[in-house]
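I have been asked to look over a protein record a colleague put together. The record follows directly below this note.
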Amino acid sequence: MEAIKDGKGPASSLHITTIPKPTPSPKSAIVKIKAFGLNRMDLLQREGMYPVPPQAPSTLGVEFSGVIESFGNDVQDGGEECFNVGDEVFGLAYGGAYAEFINVSTHMLLRKPKELSWEEAAGIPETWMTATQAMYLIGDFAPGKTILWHAGASSVSIAGIQLSKGDKAGAIYVTAGSQEKIDFCVTELGATAGYNYHTKDWAKEVLAATDGNGVDIIIDFVGQNYFQGNLDAAARDGRIVHLGAMSGTKLPAGVDISGFVRKRLRFEGSSLRSRDERYQGKLRNTLVEHALPLLKNGEMKVYVEKVFPWEKIVEAHQLMESNRTKGKIICTID
């Protein structure tokens, strides 16, 4: 089969080549891929800077949509979800989605609603499950709580803002790097307010907007540059969910950590790809409960920035690297 391989370097190292077609594991399915989504971890893995799980194939890509071609020997009657050969599905994998076929556990497959395109379905698994994990499993979200999504126009935060609104957050705040992105988050997605981190002290703005109380939950992908601001902007008994470190991992001298004790804060980091199938299956079920019905009826939306044929994977990675996007970048396989 054909697949995209990388030379461990810049985007230009990506190219389509021929590799052996996977065979199904005992409790898995082979899916013929129609579309796959790009994620920032793909950039890091391409550059040799991402800790890939040991069970992951070397081929990039963790989210996809496609058609079931076959099952492993231990899959009885299509697994727990009673899938059949020919079913249209989308799902999450440990790797291998940049290819014509993928071997994936049936526990991580979902039926593709007819209301969603292949491209939209491929943009759901990693993005929406990460947002779901951060909000509910780690952030302990409940209706009425206030929440701050950093990188507001990123795919995960776009999903998270919609989830927060749908589950009646008390207020939803965002940070982003341009007024265009702020306007998108507020006007299009329904965030309460947004702050341009280039021009404003967002932590002070959040405190002012909350009458000095701060926010209950903060979802952060930035790391070093936002660490102090997160401690300052968090409410008493607040939770800071750390999902990435785009600005770095080493804190400067002078960081004041007194807020941990004074405000009884909880700081927890997490990743999705390193989790076992049982945990990921729990996330799949949480996604089905909180988001899938609203994605089907149009109350929530998968925002796709641009669709590329997979032959243009270099351009797709370069677009993600530019940080100019608002939503998912998707590649299709004819």
Remarks:
- The radius of gyration is 20 Å.
- DSSP finds eleven helices and 15 strands in the chain.
